[in-house]
């Protein structure tokens, strides 16, 4: 199970590297990049609402979920504020806003740490979704994969314009993708056997960090270049993820019905 958690994390994290390759070698219009970012934002918002937070509240209660949610958002905001002052404020931007190392000494390291900060909470969620013998949450994996693609694409395009080397860009996203798998394993191993309330608080903490990341880094890029259509594109992404989460429910319900029938048969 722990290896499976890692593989799912590497799959979702690998989208960052795929997006980075596309952003480096393919010159996409700024509006197209922003549109993909808006779609990914909508997908991730839906997963947060109907998969992560709903599941956390049902298993751990409102107090643990709400506390974790606020804690995650607060932690992300504090670290992100520090990194922004070090040159990582526009790490998801595809334009010419990212500073070069000559313009801002240490900005390359700050961007790398910021990218790691953005990716770890998402990966931990994948691992915690498998606790209790459950299979992985496909909605969470797909949502993270679809949001990672535009993140890598937009960020690598901005890094290229900031005159950063290809080895820096691809090395960074390959490392983040690898750490994503390790974070998924950590999410599964570290919290296995923990009380449901604690697991729910951890899931909600990751969800709060993800939502803060969306508002601070992804949505501004989506709105700036395609503000007339950004809302509609995000709604389409939200609807796609919502439909996927509802399609998973009949399969879970059928599995539950089968288990119930088997138990009744044994009692008879």
Break the fold down into its secondary structure elements and pairings:
Layout (H helix, E strand, L loop, with lengths): L1 H24 L4 H59 L18 H22 L9 H24 L4 H24 L6 H31 L3 H38 L1
Helix pairs in contact: 1-3, 1-4, 1-5, 2-3, 2-4, 2-6, 2-7, 3-4, 3-5, 3-6, 4-5, 4-7
Give your account of this protein's structure:
This protein is mainly alpha-helical and 268 residues long. The protein has seven helices and no strands. Helix 1 packs antiparallel against helix 3 and helix 2 crosses helix 3. The two termini are 34 Å apart. 52% of the residues are buried.
- Number of helical regions: 7
Approximate helicity band = over 70%
Largest sheet: none
Envelope shape? globular
* Proportion in β-strands: under 5%
| Mean model confidence by pLDDT | 79
Question: Could you tell me how far the N terminus lies from the C terminus, measured between alpha carbons in angstroms?
Answer: 34 Å
What is the tally of beta strands? 0
Unreliable residue runs: 255-268
**What structural class is derived from the secondary structure elements?**
mainly alpha
Rg over CA atoms, rounded to whole Å, is 19 Å
Compressed to H and E, one letter per element, the order equals HHHHHHH
